[in-house]
Design a protein that fits this description.
Shape: rod-shaped
Largest sheet: none
Helix content: over 70%
Order of helices and strands: H
Oligomer: single chain
Number of domains: 1
Structural class: mainly alpha
Amino acid sequence: MLTDSSRYQSSSLETAVAIDVDRCVCWMSSVIGISLLLLAY
């Protein structure tokens, strides 16, 4: 029982971290894309 609850907490934490990483990567890629477009023109 205790291991199940701790396992659930760790998996949900990993999911939240993965979502944050995905958001950061998307934000960084969009910023880099806009910067490249501005430099191109």
